[in-house]
Amino acid sequence: MISKSFEPLRQLVGEKLRLNEPLRRYTVARLGGPADALVVVDTLEMLEQVVRLAWSYGWPLRILGGGANILIGDKGFRGLVVINDAKNVDYLEDGRVIAESGAGMIAIARGSMEKGLAGFEWAINVPGTVGGGAVSNAGAHGSDVAHQLVGIEIAFKDQTIEHWPLEKLNYRYRESALKRSPDPYVVLKVELQLQPGHDPAILEGRADAFIAQRKRTQPPGASLGSMFKNPPGDYAGRLIEAAGLKGTRRGGVVISPMHGNFFINVERGTAADYLALIRLAQEHVQTKFGITLELEIELVGEFA
Ligand SMILES: Cc1cc2nc3c(=O)[nH]c(=O)nc-3n(C[C@H](O)[C@H](O)[C@H](O)COP(=O)(O)OP(=O)(O)OC[C@H]3O[C@@H](n4cnc5c(N)ncnc54)[C@H](O)[C@@H]3O)c2cc1C
User: Fold this and answer.
1) pLDDT tens, residue by residue, 135-190
2) Could you tell me if residue 32 is inside a domain?
3) Does 25 share its domain with 121?
4) The domain containing residue 186 runs over which residues?
5) Does 84 contact ligand 1 (Cβ within 6 A)?
6) 28 CA to middle of ligand 1, Å?
7) Tens digit of each residue's pLDDT (9 = 90 or more) over 61-75
8) Same domain assignment for residues 108 and 200
9) Is 296 among the residues known to form the active site?
């Protein structure tokens, strides 16, 4: 039944089409049930073609980069998941970096430093792709994508390809105009402006300091990074700690005793375990402090 409905996709991508494919392999947290269909694309042309095919047939679609900011339900995803592995990056002498959207944030941070381009060292420990980072305005160590981004190339469902300059993206803390776009889209390319002519050793020293700082302040182990956005003027981790929830465990997942905004998959945790802790933290923080914790991660697919 399912395989029949994806026949046009098989004609386009052949053996690359996987049916009933477990999604845990494609997410940083190693969680999630199966997708009805999944394709890994490694060129922008194929990314656009596959996405347009899905739009034309009306298949439910989810484009994933590194799967570093999503929690996929244990029952998986009904529809097509496209894993974006188009990852070429051009580093230009004038400091511009033109990256395909599937390029890794960490890879771009490393590549830029090697070429003496300054400004993207903060991304040295931010997993996922630059496409995902451009949608959510990923950031760390006092910077974020909005600080270096010049513009992005996006394909929309109505056949257009648009270039959106920085101003149009209306970036805020982990937010962009694109993230809330009602029109289906896929980010194809991202252009950054970095500063050329720096000593790679100095840039690498800066990145090493960021890595060391993270090791000191954030717990090791399989996690989804920060679960909640920091509410204005406060920190989600502080609130969860003040609610007495550090160390709380549900199934195989525990709220880190080191940092309340990190939920660690310690022993074959499930998406349901994560969801139980998410709800618990939201309820306790709401009741004790009257503050609504908003998820930083996205919930995707079917949970029960
Ligand atoms: C250990 C850990 C540490 C982290 N630290 C940080 C941090 O310091 N700062 C921070 O900001 N984040 C952090 N994160 C979260 C994550 O790294 C970022 O959100 C990252 O930008 C996600 O990119 P991704 O490619 O993995 O996106 P995914 O998780 O694959 O997707 C996220 C969203 O973007 C959409 N999307 C992805 N690619 C495209 C595309 N090409 N076109 C259209 N939509 C797309 C997806 O559909 C989904 O809605 C951390 C995560 C982990 C696990």
Assistant:
1) 999 999 999 999 999 999 999 998 899 999 999 999 999 999 999 888 999 999 99
2) yes
3) no
4) 89-217
5) yes
6) 10
7) 999 999 999 999 999
8) yes
9) yes
